[in-house]
Amino acid sequence: MKGSFITFEGCEGVGKTTQVERLRDYLARTGQRALFLREPGGTVISEKIREMLLSKENDRMNGKCEALLYSAARAQLLGEVVAPALENGINVVCDRFTDSTFAYQGCARGLGTDFVDELNRLTCGDIVPDVTVFLDLHPKKAFERKGGADKNDRLESQSIEFHEKVYEGYMEVARRYPQRFACVDASGDADTVWNSVIALLRERTSVK
Ligand SMILES: Nc1ncnc2c1ncn2[C@@H]1O[C@H](COP(=O)(O)OP(=O)(O)OP(=O)(O)O)[C@@H](O)[C@H]1O
Ligand SMILES: [Mg+2]
Questions:
Q1: How far is CA 25 from CA 53, 200, 206, in A?
Q2: Which end of the chain is more exposed for a tag (fewer CB within 10 A), N or C?
Q3: Is residue 30 exposed (0-12), middle (13-18) or buried (19+ Cβ within 10 Å)?
């Protein structure tokens, strides 16, 4: 049996890493195999591209360049890691994937949804997440909770208007892919959110 491909999405500071770590602990504790990846990254080449994307020195990078770099990192990750793992029945969990490209580059940076749809299709082919856990929390609330944006991260230091556009982008994904894209209320405490996340995954994936 093929492994389940699970992605986590959401605006900055909504608790993606917190929930992904809980899932990692849970699967380890219950003896279930899974591969945990972060985007962009997950291979030597993709991590190098990640550095380029997040560096403050590259603040003149235009949206098209950014989108293509994300896709380049992803193409390497899919070919080298994700596709072989899924074929071997291993579950793959990814912190951000194509929906981030749609929301950030397609919507917030204004590249347009046609460009990003085509780019995602060319990059991923038939590798589509089985379930995407969207941690639903408006960026204003997420930033309050986190105590402000991280000024050293080029993407996080964008204005709140930018992050609102990201959120709107995710809402568009939710309208387009209601089956795959599962919205989880992320406003509760970490335990409450985790209970929703694990219930969803047990129902919709091979996670037990
Ligand atoms: N449900 C929650 N309630 C309150 N605080 C939370 C909750 N989940 C996570 N946090 C805290 O919020 C902060 C951001 O969480 P986390 O790093 O998991 O978010 P993220 O979505 O991965 O952020 P980023 O987009 O920056 O990677 C952390 O300090 C974390 O401890
Ligand atoms: Mg994170």
A1: 29, 17, 16
A2: N
A3: exposed
Cα(12)–Cα(118) distance, rounded to whole angstroms? 25
Amino acid letter for position 64: K
Total structural domains within the chain: 1
CATH number of domain containing 29:
3.40.50.300
- The answer to whether 45 and 57 have CB atoms below 8 angstroms apart is no
47 CB less than 6 Å from ligand 1? no
Asked, as a colleague might, if the bond just before 129 is cis with ω within 30 of 0, I would say: no
Query: From ligand 1's centre to the CA of 8, what distance in Å?
Result: 13
Give me the mean pLDDT over the 46-75 stretch.
95
| Bridge partners (DSSP) listed for residue 181 | 132
155 confidence band (pLDDT: 50, 70, 90): low
Q: Give the whole-angstrom CA distance, residue 95 versus residue 102.
A: 15
Of all protein residues, the one whose alpha carbon is nearest to atom 4 of ligand 1 is 189
Contacts of 72 (CB under 8 A, 6+ apart): 49
pLDDT at 119 over 80: yes
